[in-house]
Amino acid sequence: MLLFFTVSCMAALVSAGSQQPLARPRAFDVQGHRGGRGNAVENTLPSFAWGLIDGATTLELDNGVTKDGVVVVWHDEEIVASKCQDTAPVHPEDPNFPYVGKFIANLTLAQLKTLDCGSQRQSNFPLQLTYPGTRISSMQEVFDFVECVDPEHLMNWNIESKIDAAFPERTRGVDVFVHSQHVVFSASPYKERITYQSFDWRSLLAMKKLNPSIMTSALVEYETAVMPDDTASPWLGGLNLQNFSGSSLGVKLANAAHAINASIISPDAYDMPNSLTSKELVDQAHYLGMMVKPWTVNSLDMADNLLRWGVDGIITDFPNIVRRWVQQQGRQVAPKYPKRRVLSCLEEHNRF
User: Fold this and answer.
1) Which residue from 9, 132, 133, 232 puts its CA 20 to 30 A from 210's CA?
2) Closest CA to 148 of 337, 333, 351
3) Quick one: average pLDDT of 44-64?
4) Using alpha carbons only, how large is the chain's radius of gyration in Å?
5) Cis, bond preceding 98 (omega within 30 deg of 0)
6) Tell me, what is one Gene Ontology molecular-function annotation carried by this entry (predicted)?
7) In this model, does residue 253 exceed pLDDT 70?
8) Rounded to an integer, what distance in angstroms lies between the CA atom of residue 115 and that of residue 162?
9) What is the pLDDT of residues 145-203, one digit of tens each?
10) What is the pLDDT of residue 18?
């Protein structure tokens, strides 16, 4: 059953007064979006390999949960033909075959493992490297691959729950989703280096209940924050922005994220009229002790603005370019992992 939170319920779970200012990380947080989808096919082991080679501070990625309860690394709710191709059914006369077009929540891990999700370069990312035959990975498999490269467990993670608050039948529910992720996270040597993010703020509250110490990031864009009739958004865990004070939408959003004890607010930073990142949002978030890490920043003109406003990190499809730009600004960056070691681990783990 889905969890629904009212403002009073949330007040019982978290205390705004308990929010403590967070120390800024030493290296500016350059996050490789879906590993770095500008450079390699998204959310696959090759994309994370190139994120490591390119010196991303944090690997950003998405989680789905399969019919049989396995946490997998993929962005979309369903398997889309532009990214994945069917190969063969997991067993003869499987009634669910073909799997392309089906929701992840309605497929098992074994069915997903038959898909080739590494052969198709996306038209809007013409520099993407393809890795034909690459399969969707479980979250555990991604942890295992990165641990091969990073045995000291220094890598940072920003992991998103892909729960659909508007169409709950498309994904597993909040209880199942968050519990499944929590089990995998808790068993990982990276458990202290995970930020948990979501557009569906119910999952942030649910994860905080299971693990009060985990850092949470409140993802937000205009479509999930503002309802046409000014009612509470299903994405914000029962919150209505109209109930929060503030001279601008950005200030109200920062106040709302603080109300659920989020460590970070992560607004969109597209160069469009409805983009939510603003200096007012950054200033209010910092005043409240939160960090600000906008997405998905693929323009250095926008990055210039964001750095002037004082953001604490940038989520980008091109971590190699943004990392180089950060260095040019005189800011410290995370070290790169040795290319030979990364590619050796990739060869070992990306087998199908």
Assistant:
1) 232
2) 337
3) 98
4) 20
5) yes
6) phosphoric diester hydrolase activity
7) yes
8) 20
9) 999 999 999 999 999 999 999 999 999 999 999 999 999 999 999 999 999 999 999 99
10) 45
